[in-house]
C-alpha cells in the first residue's frame, strides 16, 4: 500500500481556468479551462525532469525480461548519449522503440503502444536529488493517500478519448509529462461544444478534479504538426491519484 505524507504546502503560482479553447504554453488566461482543471506549464526544471525520468525508466525496466534490459545496456554502451535534432533534451534517456517491450493495446483498447506499472516505491537511494524532486511533486497533491502509476508511450503511442473508470478512480488525478510534447484534448460529455486542448511540454503538470475528472472525455495525441517524419519521440507520464477505497489496486 502506497501512502505519502508531506510537510505543509507552500503557495504556488498556477493557472486554473472554462469553456472551449486551444491553449499554448505562453498564453494562459483565467477563462480558458473549466473549474477543477489546473495547469503548471513549466513546473520542473530540466535537471529535475532528468532525475524523474531516469528514476521512472529504471523502475519500468525492472518489469521487463533480462534480454531486453541487456539489449538496452549494449545499446547505451555503443553510443554517445546525445539528443536528436528536433526533440527535447530528455531524448538521450530513451532508447529506440524496438529496445522496449511495448504492448500493442491496453485491455480496454484505450492506450496503444505503451508499457506501464503501478509504483509502490521510488528508488531514492539510486538517484541523487530524487527525494527533493518528489517532495516538490507530491506537494501538488490535494490529499496525501495516493496511488502512483507510470505510463511510457512509444514514439507512435497514444491514448484514445475516454472517461476513466469510476469504480477504480478517486476524485482527482495529477499528471506529469516527461519527454516529447503531446496534446491533451478534453471534451465535456454532458454539454455539446464544451471542449479544450493544450500542449503538454516536458516538465508540465496538470490536475483534474471533481466534475472535470468524470464529466470530461480526455485523450493524449502525438504532436506531429511542424515535425518531420521520425521526429515524434517517447513520452513518459507520472499519474498520481487519490486512493479509492473500493478500488482493487493497493
Describe this structure as you would to a colleague.
This protein is an alpha+beta fold and 250 residues long. It has a single domain, classed as Sandwich (Jelly Rolls). It has 4 helices and 12 strands. The protein has helices at residues 46-61, 66-77, 130-138, 211-214, and strands spanning 15-16, 21-23, 37-40, 103-105, 111-119, 146-162, 172-179, 182-188, 195-200, 205-209, 216-222, 235-242. Strands 1, 2, 3, 4, 5, 6, 7, 8, 9, 10, 11 and 12 form a 12-stranded mixed β-sheet that branches. β8 (182-188) and β9 form a beta hairpin. It is globular, with a radius of gyration of 18 Å. The termini are close together. The relative contact order is 0.22.
Give a short synopsis of this structure.
This protein has 250 residues and is an alpha+beta fold. The protein has helices at 46-61, 66-77, 130-138, 211-214; strands spanning 15-16, 21-23, 37-40, 103-105, 111-119, 146-162, 172-179, 182-188, 195-200, 205-209, 216-222, 235-242. The chain has four helices and twelve strands.
